[in-house]
Design the sequence.
């Protein structure tokens, strides 16, 4: 019974995300590369990239991403990589959410079977994007002295080019 309810909750979450995420695009040109270039993940609208005056080597991108392909994308935030111009992975974090959400489980209280999928979707750790579907997205990374811009977000089957920072945020 619990498994059926969990499966139903996941299905409802995925369906709600797909319905809420569908809509018109911005008309922006695709910026994905890789084996599925032009048919995978794309920016929906213009991504906003910032750097802080107090942390000049750190960057944040906030945007929406859209599945321009013909198959559903299953994306895991923990598997995303931010890469510099040379292809080197940078220290980064990413997620499919626009706000902070507190998890249901404490650090030492995780279920033995792992965090439920519905909870991972709610927290932006996992997203299922059907063709045409979109989701909020953020990534934050640290540029090492050896790192070169521009950077790309590698999602496994392609990459998204991140534009240069548009300005500095307040301290």
Sequence:
């Amino acid at each position: 019974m619990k498994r059926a309810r969990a499966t139903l909750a996941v299905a409802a979450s995925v369906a709600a995300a797909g319905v809420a995420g569908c809509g018109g695009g911005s008309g922006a040109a695709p910026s994905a590369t890789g084996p599925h270039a032009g048919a995978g993940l794309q920016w929906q609208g213009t991504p906003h990239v910032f750097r802080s005056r107090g942390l000049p080597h750190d960057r944040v991108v906030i945007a929406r991403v859209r599945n321009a392909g013909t198959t559903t994308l299953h994306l895991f935030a923990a598997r995303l990589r931010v890469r510099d111009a040379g292809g080197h992975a940078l220290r980064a974090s990413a997620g499919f959410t626009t706000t902070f959400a507190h998890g249901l489980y404490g650090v030492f209280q995780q279920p033995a079977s792992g965090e439920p999928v519905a909870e991972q979707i709610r927290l932006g750790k996992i997203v299922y994007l059907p063709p045409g579907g979109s989701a909020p997205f953020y990534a934050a990374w640290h540029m090492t002295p050896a790192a070169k811009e521009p950077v790309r977000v590698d999602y496994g089957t392609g990459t998204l080019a991140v534009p240069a920072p548009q300005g500095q945020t307040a301290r």
